[in-house]
Amino acid sequence: MTGPLDGVKVVALEQAVSLPFATRHLADLGARVIKIERVGGGDFARDYDHEVRGLGSHFVWVNRNKESLALDFKDPQGRAVLDELIAGADVVAQNLAPGTAERMGLTAEKLCARHPRLVACDISGYGEGGPYATKRAYDLLVQAEAASIATTGWPDRPAKPGIPIADLTAGIYAYSSILAALYERERTGRGRAVKVSLFDAIAEWMGYTIYFTQYSGRRHEPNGISHPSLSPYEAFGTADGRLVVLGVQNDREWARLAVEVLGRPDLVTDPRYATGPGRTRHRADVTAVCAETIGKLTLDEAIQVLDAAGIACGRVNHADELVAHPQLEARERWRDVDSPAGPIRALLPPPISDGWEPRMDAIPAVGQHSRAILSELGRSPAEIDQLVERGVLGG
To answer: Is the pLDDT of residue 306 over 90?
Structure first.
């Protein structure tokens, strides 16, 4: 079986998480992704930690299926190699430090001007123009500026979400936009320059909060494990010290919960609790009555009772419990991926379609494919050795 992007060649001047996340998804669907890395240490995300048999957790996650070319493209000979790769590419994407792509003529607009069929994508922190255009923008910083931290956690204890959502949102928008531009090229014959910023991406995902705040006149304060507009829609402690979440989104569900779980049919007709807005206004009372009943049950008992009543519910799992989750096991979502440290267990990518077999190829060492890629471009072994000796090429 082949992927839908077989034959698509991607040159990625990438680092950290946002763009590597986007290009890994392209590679999962069959694209050939050539990852340009620094000579020597490579992508600095390789060294965020060394928890995966000596490899970085982030790097392992977002860099399978790629070829690593360690190249100093600030050197004229290295730049000549890069320009040759770009000339033969379908997609070029970069998330270099602010100002670097502009200085080196590697922005999406400049590349598309030279190569009209090229799809080129820039990922930046805050976008072009404005007072933040040249600021460094790591996930934590953008989450802070875009208020996701201020709406996570508890009113007196805001918290950063445990996953890098600014990086991931930007990566997903880059990925989907590149796919859209490739589809457009099929119809028009012309490529397109695409720009995505972390700040714009996370601001879009803050849409509910933006509308709530603008039109209610109130800040969206963090709600812990709950919801500002729904009740009960939160976590409750169980008799064995665990947490169960349940969600009631309409009055029919509330009636089932009140009668079949809480044993309180009076709550269905009580005007304080009969409607969603009423339950939200009396959240403390709703939480208390739910907590009293659920707190007498173990986690497994609570799940069984809530499931039987048709109430949406779930366990508050830890990461090790996700790794051992029976749903992943039953659906055979795990595969082994090769790496410089040996086989590593990894999840299949989310899209499923008969006839698509997602690639689960190796995670590359720094510069692992440098010599092969330059040989493909017609460089002789002697030329390649000379570039390695000069520090222009790694591998």
So the answer is: yes
Asked if residue 143 and residue 15 are part of one domain, the reply reads yes
Dihedral sign for Cα 142, 146, 148, 150, please. Answer: positive
What the block records as the tokens of 109 is 């607009």
Residues with Cβ within 8 Å of residue 128, at least 6 apart in sequence = 195
Task: Please tell me whether residues 352 and 256 are part of one structural domain.
Answer: no
Q: Are residues 140 and 194 in the same domain?
A: yes
Entry field: residues in the chain: 395
* Closest of 289, 242, 282 to residue 261, by C-alpha: 289
| Whole-structure pTM value | 0.95
- pLDDT > 70? residue 369: yes
Backbone φ and ψ of 81, nearest 5°: -65, -45
* 251-280: burial string, b at 16+ Cβ within 10 Å, e else: eebbbbbbeebbeeeebbeeeebeebebbb
Radius of gyration over every alpha carbon of the chain, rounded to an integer in angstroms:
25
pLDDT(2) > 90: no
The pairs formed by 254-257 with CB atoms below 8 angstroms and a separation of 24 or more are: 254/279, 256/309, 256/310, 256/311, 257/232, 257/290, 257/309, 257/311
Query: What's the rounded Cα separation, in Å, for the pair 29 and 361?
Result: 11
**The tokens of 391 are what?**
């520090």
Question: Which strand (E) or helix (H) includes residue 306?
Answer: helix 299-308
Query: What is the CA 236 to chain-centroid distance, rounded?
Result: 29
CA distance 211 to 64: 38
Distance CA 161, CA 153 (A): 8
User: Where is the domain boundary, 281, 315, 349?
Assistant: 315
Query: Are the beta carbons of 111 and 118 closer than 8 angstroms?
Result: yes
192 within domain boundaries = yes
What is the Cα–Cα distance from 226 to 280, expressed in whole angstroms?
11
Which range marks the domain in which residue 38 is found? 9-205+333-394
Q: Write out pLDDT tens, residues 206-228.
A: 999 999 999 999 998 898 999 88
Could you tell me whether strands 91-94 and 157-158 are parallel, antiparallel, or unpaired per DSSP bridges? Answer: unpaired
The number of angstroms, rounded, from the C-alpha of 366 to the middle of its chain's C-alpha atoms is: 23
Cβ-contact 169, 163 below 8 angstroms: no
Distance of alpha carbon 203 from alpha carbon 188, whole angstroms: 32
Same domain, 200 and 94: yes
> Looking at the structure, do residues 193 and 65 belong to the same domain, yes or no?
yes
C-beta of residue 192 within 8 angstroms of C-beta of residue 124: no
Cα–Cα distance between 85 and 71 in angstroms, integer? Answer: 12
pLDDT of amino acid 1? 56
The token pair at 331 is: 């659906």
